[in-house]
Amino acid sequence: MSLGVIGLGYAGIGVVTAIAIAATRGLPTVVDAFLAVAMWPLWAPLAIVREPKDAREQELLGALARAQGSPLASVLPDAESARVLASRLREASVRLGELDEVIARPDFDPAIVKARAEDLRARGAVTAAATAELRVKTLGQLRTLRERYRSELEEVRELIAQLVTQAELVRLQPSAAEASSELVRELVARVEGLGDLFAYQAAIETGQEYQPVLGRSTSA
Are 27 and 101 in the same domain? Predict the structure, then answer.
């Protein structure tokens, strides 16, 4: 069987895959359609099972799919691991959005709550004042958490953009693949590390002491 026939068969499967994705998930974007045809072994399972699209999640999946077609393929996570990473990134994005909404509420303004605590204490309502002061502390933790989510997601986005760039470089200069593998490891580690923020958020919400993972940032 010639390479031409194999290539046509591969492209044919990709076209069928794109049609199947359109039927089950709605019309794909131009990028999704291209990736479904050109890189269907990786992209198809990801596109079919994923939740409604999140921009950061789509960027990660797109970067991995593009890198899959380069010499970096050997150091990329497999399809199942990529789905887990994309899910974690989507969850972090959702949580950041929720924190933005909550913190924007007037009753979640630390200055207002602090003034309330001071007023209560001045009137001798010591117990109520202590509760209000505890709320001030919790609000501060929520703001710190939001900034950590924002910082980590921005770092992940930059790593994703660099992976796309690096994949193109490696395509042109395969000898750069070994040095580029560290970028893949850093990206995966960053996304996996979002689990630490999930744990920190759970500790805040339940009032428990947070025990950070050794070796990761513990600033609060």
Answer: no
Range of the structural domain that residue 24 is part of: 1-49
State how many domains the chain has.
2
Its pTM surpasses 0.85? no
CATH number at residue 192: 1.20.1260
3-state SS, the chain, equals CCHHHHHHHHHHHHHHHHHHHHHHHCCCCHHHHHHHHHCHHHHHHHHHHCCCCCHHHHHHHHHHHHHHCCHHHHHCCCHHHHHHHHHHHHHHHHHHHHHHHHHCCHHHCHHHHHHHHHHHHHCCCHHHHHHHHHHHHHHHHHHHHHHHHHHHHHHHHHHHHHHHHHHHHHHHCHHHHHHHHHHHHHHHHHHHCHHHHHHHHHHHHHCCCCCCCCCCCCCC
Give a yes or no: residue 121 inside a domain. yes
Q: Do 45 and 136 fall into the same domain?
A: no
Whether residue 218 is contained in a domain is answered as no
pLDDT tens column, 124-176 = 999 999 999 999 998 998 999 999 999 999 999 999 999 888 888 887 887 77
